[in-house]
Amino acid sequence: MSTHDSGGPGLIGVPIQPREPRFNATAHEAWRELLRAQALISREAERRLREAGLPPLAWHEVLLALEQAPEQRLRHGALADAIVLSRSGLSRLVDRMIAAALITRERRDDDRRGANIELTEAGAAMLTRTNALYAEVVERRFARPLGIYASGVRDALGAVVRPLLASGRSG
Predict the structure, then answer these.
(1) Angle formed by the axes of helices 57-68 and 76-83, to 10°?
(2) Residue pair 134/45 in contact by the 8 Å Cβ criterion
(3) How far from the centroid of its chain's Cα atoms is residue 85's Cα?
(4) Are 80 and 86 contacting, i.e. CB atoms less than 8 angstroms apart?
(5) Those residues with Cβ within 8 angstroms of residue 156's Cβ, 6 or more apart along the chain or in another chain
(6) Per-domain residue ranges for the chain?
(7) Domain 52-167, CATH
(8) Which positions ≥6 away from 18 have C-beta within 8 Å?
(9) CA separation (Å) from 117 to 48, 77, 122, 171?
(10) Which contacts qualify for 26-34: CB closer than 8 Å, 24 or more apart?
């Protein structure tokens, strides 16, 4: 006789029902609110960038990731991970940004399959322009409402993101 959650008979012949995963309503509500906040804030940032005649938010994210990288360059895969975009989606985006002279793609001599994506001076200047507007939207719509809870939210989200990145199962 089985005493674990196999659905088989229990100690006295009564079937044991498999346990359902616990449903934490509060955590699910927090997840939905996080998704809504991200979508609404991103939508506003996209609109403001467009109205200012600046490139879309995805371009800003690429420029920011490169600006923060050592030597302002990243391998294609590392850049895709940094901005949470598929490799194929990033390839198309990189091509458009190269055409706009904001980044370059440099083939590596030691690895013909790989390439570094590098920030140009024009890209750094564009980042300064997009970052000012983006930072204002994030400050007004996210940081101010969080107030004293900002560091707690950062820490809680980090506790979710770090293991996903470490396991390689984020994408």
Answers:
(1) 120
(2) yes
(3) 8
(4) yes
(5) none
(6) 52-167
(7) 1.10.10.10
(8) 5, 6, 7
(9) 27, 10, 14, 20
(10) 34/157
d(C-alpha 171, C-alpha 16), whole Å? 36
Distance CA 21, CA 49 (A): 42
Show the tokens assigned to 71.
């030597």
Q: Please give the chain's pLDDT, 171 residues, in tens.
A: 444 445 555 566 666 666 767 778 898 999 999 999 999 999 999 999 999 999 999 999 999 999 999 999 999 888 988 887 777 888 899 999 999 999 999 886 666 667 899 999 999 999 999 999 999 999 999 999 999 999 999 999 999 988 987 887 545
Angle between helix 87-99 and 57-68 (nearest 10): 90
Beta bridge partners of 105: 117
What does 64-104 look like in DSSP terms, one character per residue? HHHHHSGGGEEEHHHHHHHHT--HHHHHHHHHHHHHTTSEE
